[in-house]
Write a structure and sequence with these properties.
Blueprint: E1 3-8, H1 13-26, E2 29-33, H2 43-49, E3 58-61, H3 64-70, E4 77-80, E5 86-87, E6 100-104, H4 113-118, E7 123-125, H5 138-152
Parallel strand pairs: 1-2, 1-6, 2-3, 4-6, 4-7, 5-7
Length: about 170
């Protein structure tokens, strides 16, 4: 099965490129919900993702409902929002035979409020000090949450990097 990072109407090509790079390095599927705030041919998008684009499985969805129709097990859908009550570390993501979907909102407005109100039990948050910042960067937030999922799965799908003898730290 697979882990998915899902971006709802992303606006910034650099964020999406960085997220694609994280997806390539973690064997995570990237789902993009349209409309996108950029062209997938955008040079900033390509530069941020560098040469990893061919290593990322990307699914495009015309809208939120079309995406939701692809999610077989809705209990494994998590909505990432700073307004959630539950921390991102609380759910159990450990069953690596399941698909997990981490849905992140648009950089400027997050996920649609009516959708969030219908699904508060699916919402998770990354704790932050709101008195200093409005929100964490989207690509950083994706990395934080996907690595918690992978940690609970014992980094099952990821290879260990072996250093050469002369590269070992002393």
């Amino acid at each position: 099965m697979a882990n998915h990072i899902v971006l709802f109407e992303p606006l910034m090509p650099a964020n999406t490129g960085n997220i694609a790079r994280t997806c390539a390095g973690t064997d995570t599927v990237l789902d993009l919900i349209e409309p996108l705030g950029f062209s997938v041919d955008d040079k900033h998008l390509k530069r941020a993702g560098l040469d990893y684009w061919d290593k990322v499985k990307i699914n495009y969805h015309k809208n939120l409902q079309e995406f939701l129709d692809t999610v077989e097990n809705k209990k494994n859908l998590f909505l990432v929002s700073k307004f959630a009550e539950q921390d991102y570390t609380e759910p159990d993501y450990s069953d690596n035979t399941q698909d997990y979907y981490l849905l992140f909102g648009k950089e400027t407005t997050g996920l649609p409020e009516p959708f969030m109100r219908k699904n508060p039990e699916k919402a998770i948050r990354i704790p932050q000090d709101d008195s200093h910042i409005r929100a964490l960067n989207l690509s950083n937030s994706c990395a934080i949450v996907i690595y918690e999922v992978l940690r609970q799965q014992n980094f099952n799908s990821l290879e260990k990097t072996h250093m050469y003898e002369h590269d070992k730290l002393k």
